[in-house]
Write a structure and sequence with these properties.
Layout lengths: L7 E6 L5 E5 L3 E5 L5 E7 L4 E6 L5 E5 L3 E5 L5 E6 L4 E7 L3 E6 L4 E3 L1
Antiparallel strand pairs: 1-2, 2-3, 3-4, 5-6, 6-7, 7-8, 9-10, 10-11
Length: 110
């Protein structure tokens, strides 16, 4: 798997068995299981810290730029949210809510 230009800090699997990687190079990339690049999903304005996949197979990415972005598997941005502090982790809660922990010690639901 070659394509990022810096270290990878976040990984997750899509529901259709693709690998999603987020890097210090500010990018999120989609890969086939055999390592072939499939899509460039988004570029934040800071290192990618966390990733998760929604029930609808959409990618949620969090960055040191204090943004959360949701994209489809082709890279189309579906939603964007600015938060008060850089996210440490993102997870899906029941009811399609996002749970985000941030560097200021907060855990928030969106």
């Amino acid at each position: 798997y070659q394509g990022h230009t810096d270290s990878v800090h976040a990984l997750c699997m899509s529901h259709d068995n693709h690998i999603i990687s987020g890097s210090v190079d500010w990018s999120v990339r989609l890969w086939s299981i055999d390592g072939q690049p499939r899509a460039f999903l988004t570029s934040h304005k800071g290192p990618i810290i966390s990733l998760c996949v929604t029930a609808e197979n959409q990618v949620v990415s969090g960055s040191h730029d204090r943004t959360i972005r949701i994209t489809d598997m082709s890279g189309k941005e579906l939603a964007f949210c600015k938060i008060d502090s850089s996210p440490n982790a993102i997870a899906m809660a029941s009811g399609n809510q996002l749970v985000i922990s941030s560097m200021d010690g907060q855990v928030s639901f969106y």
